[in-house]
Amino acid sequence: MKNIAYAWSAVGGDPALADRVTVTARRGVLDARLPVREAARACVAVCALAAAELAARRAGLARVPGVRVDDGAVATSFTSERQLLVDGRAPVAFAPLSRFWRTADGWVRTHANYPHHRERLLSALGAGAAEESEVEAALAERSAVEAEEAVYAAGGLAVAVRTPEEWARHPQAAAVAGRPLVERERLGTARARVLVPLPAGTPLLPAAGLRVLDLSRVIAGPVATRTLALLGADVLRVDPPGMPELPDQHTDTGFGKRSAVLDLAAGRRDFEELLAAADVVVTGYRPGALDRFGLSAEALAERRPGLVVAQLSAWGAYGPWGGRRGFDSLVQAATGIAVTEGTPERPGALPAQALDHGSGHLLAAGVLRALTERSYDGYGRVVRVALARTARWLTQEVAADTGAAEGGYDDAGPWLAERDSRLGRLRYALPPVAFAGGPGDWARPPGPWGADPARWA
Predict the structure, then answer these.
(1) Catalytic residue positions?
(2) What angle is formed at CA 268 by the lines to CA 218 and CA 223, rounded to 5 degrees?
(3) What is the model's pLDDT at position 401?
């Protein structure tokens, strides 16, 4: 329970509530050299506990409902993008140019799942480098750091594979080390509207009636908002036109949400109408990328007093890499995780995109705790989570669990479900966030990307 207590304190939780968590430990779950199972369990536990706390507050309960965390449910959810089937078809996880490559002095990891990132990667490596063999040859001529800087300068995504010791000497690692696991700050002085109590005799949906504007992409941010949707929030994901989310990724993280397209410049009035009725805004773009649209935490809170702003980034909004893009796989490569989980011949990876899923649950927990705190004092908050800080926690702070397991994890079946949707017949991972009286599944399946109007339900 040490890891759960630490993560709970990171989101500002009352230490006395940590004993409301019950864990079902299982063997063979997220096996790795690093304590991935323990970190994943703690992230889900604090998210469920924050949900139970807010539910108790809104329902007027004398005691916070008990939280149940099952390692099987956690492992299945943390690999949800692999568990997904759409009409029996398995999704494609990584594009051909998203992988490890040999360089003149080591390895580099690239990310080119999105077409614009692929184009920038190829541009950085020289015209005509369109085949894997050509990319391989171009990278083999450069050092890993040279490739990292050249691709970054072109707007692409590549990171040198570093050992834990090499990362520890990097200025960004020092900047990350000085930050808390979850950054929390009170915003402004204006008061927010009071949360409506939950009706007696209804399911405990702590986020019922709350409106969440989801301006995030990929996995971590959408996992956070997928969790808030599970808990009853009206979540509207808004993407820019011409930049569709990868279809399978959108399906996996789209449960419980609606999806709209909106140009933040041309559709300014529409966005301001959405903001005027929002309780939470979640952003997942690189730090500063949305500031020109007036979407910094301070600017948002000024226009919408009492707003809770949640920000997810790869490297944090500080240090020399504070403005850089990044993804789970790249953070693993940079921070020494790929070396730790690899072999002498080749870098490796965690058994799940645990930095994404873990950070998403921590961000959701931070939002839920901010809403609980706001229900007492009326003030808005900003919550920030960085994949690189989650990586530091995993690699240096999470304690391995040496206790006895209660069972194994041979089959994800008990934590999978099927349902029909406008996208086809879906097999998907059930949510791992569970507490007494809480929901067990999302109220609605995902729909087509951008198919909903940009307005609240």
Answers:
(1) 356
(2) 20
(3) 86
